[in-house]
Amino acid sequence: FSGPVERQAVLADVNLLLLLAIAVSSCPKGCLCCSDILSCADQGLKALPSKLHAYITTLDLNYNHLTELKEGSFATLPRLESLRLAHNRLKCLEAGTFRNSSSLRQLDLSSNQLDKVDVHYFLELTGLEELLLFNNRIVRVESKALAALGNLRKAYISHNHLTDFPFFSIQEDSHPFLATMDLSSNSMSKLPLVDIETLPAALQSGLFLHNNTLICECEMYNMFRRWELKGFTSIRDFREEYTCLVYGERKASVKFFQHRRFFELNLNCSSAVAGVVREPEGSMLVYEGDGVVLDCHTTLRGQHLTYLWVSPHHGAGAPPENNGTLRMHANGSLEIVSAQAEDSGVYWCKVFDTVKRNESWEVNVTVLMRHDEAEPFNTGFTTLIGCVTTLVLVLMYLYLTPCRCWCRKQPPPPGTPSPANDQCSAQSSILTPPPLTTTEGPGRKVSNNKHVVFLEPIKEV
């Protein structure tokens, strides 16, 4: 060995191997021991195994007949990280049950007979990240029951009998990492909308409230519509299961997202829904050449926030970057100095805080082209002018064209043939209808109006 540190590490590994070998040889009857895992599932146990070795990190006691857990039940397991107690008959937990279990990361108490969650249940589980309490008989969760779980990320309390829940106790300052809260399939008829809407956006996205006995209200419908427009997972994955009761009648159930006309017409929710469509997140219009400032909206608070913007054509940047086209400010906003057509697209902002929480915001910018105030002639108007002009020219040609012959001179004495008259008569006959024959003189033909046209000279007999 090269040094005392290496020797100590090797000795520790050897001791652990010896402990594992001894533990495997003393594995409880009917259980399965594998490395640091002890599984005693479905063994009909009414009490915990008598010998639990300190090396265990995963303990599986699912599908047994446990009815109680006493104080210090797991105190001898300081390395325990995952405890599975599903499908037992537990009705309550004594104070101090999880003493010396601060390393526990996952606790599964689903499918038991718990009827409430008291304040003392999880006081010692400061490192807990995932809590499973679904399919119990829980009717109440105390306001401070989850207060000690500052590292909690996921909580599943669905399929119980809850009529309310203390949303004010899981705000951002007390549970900064909480991103999933499943309260579906309970008996909640009303929701504290103010407390819910102050939750972080990440938690709202993972707040599952479907299959409750909610009473139809405009404010509730409005909130779920906003969640739908934002693409929250809680709505996207269970869209068809968000229902409410009309005036509280269980037989009169409607779906939030399939019966919108009911909410907009019967409950007069149309004005609220219109407000949802006009939310700032989504799109922004700006004229070419104008400047615009894009705000990075976030619920994160503190003086040490880090902002990152990603633009469609200029890549990523952070304050106080300024490339002449885009200017980033210290408060996280992004300024487009002079918008051009190529600046159109989706701008994405991400915010980080000191504990590595993050939120994102998207804005779709559309740059509109400016038009001159003096509009060109309308095509229809121009066509009409052309048609009128053509008609006038045709009339002028028909009625005002001068005669290029001597037809307007005094006619020669009777009996004197005139070649010019023959020519004029021939031209005139083209523009006049065929004459009618009268009895005023032999061979004389006249028109049907006051003008007389001679088709051929009259010869004296």
Report on the structure:
The chain is of the alpha/beta class and 461 residues long. It folds into three domains: 37-277, Alpha-Beta Horseshoe (Leucine-rich repeat, LRR (right-handed beta-alpha superhelix)), CATH 3.80.10.10; 284-368, Immunoglobulins (Immunoglobulin-like, Sandwich); 379-446, no CATH class. The chain is 21% helix and 18% strand. It is built from nine helices and 23 strands. The strands form six sheets. A nine-stranded mixed β-sheet has the order 1-2-3-4-5-7-9-10-11. A five-stranded mixed β-sheet has the order 14-21-20-16-17, with no helix packed on it. Strands 15-19-18 form a three-stranded antiparallel β-sheet, with no helix packed on it. The relative contact order is 0.05. The model is unreliable at 271-281, 419-433 and 435-454 (pLDDT under 50).
Q: Which regions are unreliable across 5 or more consecutive residues at pLDDT < 50?
A: 271-281, 419-433, 435-454
Shape category: elongated
Amino-to-carboxy terminus distance = 158 Å
| Strand composition percent | 15-25%
Number of helices, counting only DSSP H or I runs of 4 residues or more: 9
Radius of gyration: 46 Å
Report the average pLDDT across residues: 80
Domain Ig-like: 274-366
Biased composition (Polar residues): 418-430
Region (Disordered): 412-448
Protein name: Adhesion molecule with Ig like domain 3
